[in-house]
Predict the 3D structure of the following.
Amino acid sequence: MTAPSVSYEGHDCRMVSSVLARVGDKWSVLVVMYLGGGPKRFNELKRMIGGVSQRMLTLTLRGLERDGLVTRTVFPTIPPRVDYELTDLGRSLREPVSALGGWAQAHQDEIEASRAAFDKAAG
Amino acid sequence: MTAPSVSYEGHDCRMVSSVLARVGDKWSVLVVMYLGGGPKRFNELKRMIGGVSQRMLTLTLRGLERDGLVTRTVFPTIPPRVDYELTDLGRSLREPVSALGGWAQAHQDEIEASRAAFDKAAG
DNA sequence: CAGAATCCCGGAAGATACTG
DNA sequence: CAGTATCTTCCGGGATTCTG
């Protein structure tokens, strides 16, 4: 019943790993999620995410842009304005990430209980 | 059509992030994937994954065990034997991870092309 | 406002050696 | 075989400062 629609065996598992390395990155996920609500400006994202340094946000956005998940649009005004928006590819990522989010939500308590029990047993 | 079954807005996005921090971990993913094929011993996993140090594999398995995704069974024989196996929770994770794997597979070329173009433009 | 540049530190992770 | 222990190296990432 939990049979995956795509089997693990039969293709290079490392590819999944490398994609998760990007997608699973803490800030990248949050950016993709928040950009799902529409285009955002730099500081707008920074405020929404909260706890991210401008350096990390810059690097994260750069990485997402490089992978074709996000577009960067500069308005040559004063003060400058830059909009970030998901590409079609970026939007298509929301679905599988959302599935993982759903899993996280469904099993969060289970995981936390397991951690507590494990930590208690190990002292 | 790409409408997610679980919306991003409406629950704490950081939870998804924290789960991805574990699940998205390079070695954790690979371990879960390989254990999907049935119970494995330590060095068996090490050989299958390849490129992982015994230290990292130990830490990864410990983390997965702590989260209740993997069970560790010790056979008090000489030489010692330890089997690692996915729990029900661990098996349930395969489905959403597989979805992400499918996405990775489907868009790999697109991503690589985007990276190449980006790197070329940036010099 | 949106970044670039610089400094700096703690933790992540490899290599190696030892053990029950 | 399945780890633990130790050392060391590396770099992710925060804080701060400067610019177009």
Observations:
- Chain B touches chain A through 57 residues (CB under 8 Å).
